[in-house]
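Record format v2
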Amino acid sequence: MAEFTMPSLGADMDEGTLQEWLVRPGEPVRKGDPVAVVETAKSTIEVECFETGTMGELLVEPGTTVPVGTPLALIEPTGERPEEPEKPRGTEGDETGRPLRPPPPTSAPPEPQRVPVPVPPDAPVHGPTGTGPLLRHLAERSGVDLENLRGSGPGGRVTRSDVEEATAAAGAVAQPSRVRSTPLARRLAAELDVDPATVTGTGRDGAVRAADVRKAARGTATAAPRPRRSAPPVRPAEERGASMRQAIAGLMTRANRDIPHYYLSTTIDMAAAMSWLHEHNRRSAVAERLLPAALLLKAAARAAREVPELNGFWTDDHFTAGDGVHLGVAVSLRGGGLVAPVLHDADTLALPQLMTALKDVVSRARTGRLRGSEVSGSTLTVTNLGDQGVETVFGLIHPPQVALVGFGRISDRPWAVDGLLGVRPVVTATLSADHRATDGAVGARYLTAVERLLQKPEES
Amino acid sequence: MNRAEALEVVEESLASTVPDADLTGLGPDDLFREALDMDSLDFLSFVETLGDRAGIRIDDEDSPELTTLSASADFLAARTGTPAE
């Protein structure tokens, strides 16, 4: 039985509100199917299933806010190899034509085993977790130091229950209760004013289940019903704006505190790119027209393939290269805030495909729903503030990424070409990079590659 | 189409491109890209919608004409045969 857990949909997400189940228990699910709608501080996201099998018990009811990593439901896998290693991200689709994507957490590599504690043969194995990004996230949020944790998993691996137990032992605040209990039971306990510690659990390992809580509540019939604590499924825009601000504040504070940024900038002649673009658009139907942003993003992605040192993650004092170029695109939202949906394998997309994908994720980021795979796993983020009219943007890196590429407005400038002064469309490309992962020479190589690629738009 | 019809098509196209926008406060000579916080993707989508609804092809070169409700209506009326009033 596999657990379907609240995924981490971006480095700035600590918790999410389950808004809606898209499948019912007993229904078949396939890997890549959206199974639930989760509302984060920043957006509403359809979360995909990462198992093929049958939907089991739903552990969390709509309207409930739970921390990242909390089991939401159980899934009965059909294959005998539910832990089959993830294939690299590809563009292959299933028979419905929908691209299959690995689940969000696999974008960061598993950690080396840090805990050299011998494992008792009967050590409980709690889920398929290594010290993956989810666990690190959970540990960080709970204030638990993974380095000092005894792992109870295979090979001394730290499991989620290790982290939860350490959290409880430390009296940290991540879990509402130190008693083993299901999320539904915890919520019910809060609503019914029942102290889970006084309830006898009948679940696995004595875990307190919802039924136990109800039973206990009947015993203390004097307790007045309390109002629901959980957030309503749909929050007002005002509250969304405030929580979005908080999420951005948290992530950017961390970026500024933890990442020693260095900044590079270069001004790029866009004459070749723009004339190619105009010619392309003149001959194309409006629906197939390209924007300069498509050329800039493609060049940024191809350059990242050439300079892989900037494409990946800095975690636990070392760099891990991305398994492909998955370009996060910062999209500003009307009414404030921003989200950064992902263009997977952007370096391999032909320009029309890239343009279609860009239109799609941007419009859904603003008006509709994004999928879990579309908001997580970026290996490098691009911010394009050209539309806002500025010339240059020096951004903050989105941890755990190691670089951020910025493009300003494309504008006509006096420009020396072959010893003559002319007027050319130019754009300022910038790079903010993590000095722990790379030095300026690498960053310079990257921007030079972007410039070179933009001179040959017909090859992109 | 006459100018009144053209203006209606322009307004409908804007409303469908920027569904959360409030068009009531938009004056005929306001620059709508700025007023409605439209980026180049929004604008492209507006051009696409406008061309589809009016049954004409709008090129990149026409963009400078599509800045205000008034100018866009003039442009559309002229392109679709009926001269602007």
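Chain B has a mean pLDDT of 88.
Chain B touches chain A at residues 18-21, 37, 39-41, 44-45, 47-48, 51-52, 57-60 (CB under 8 Å).
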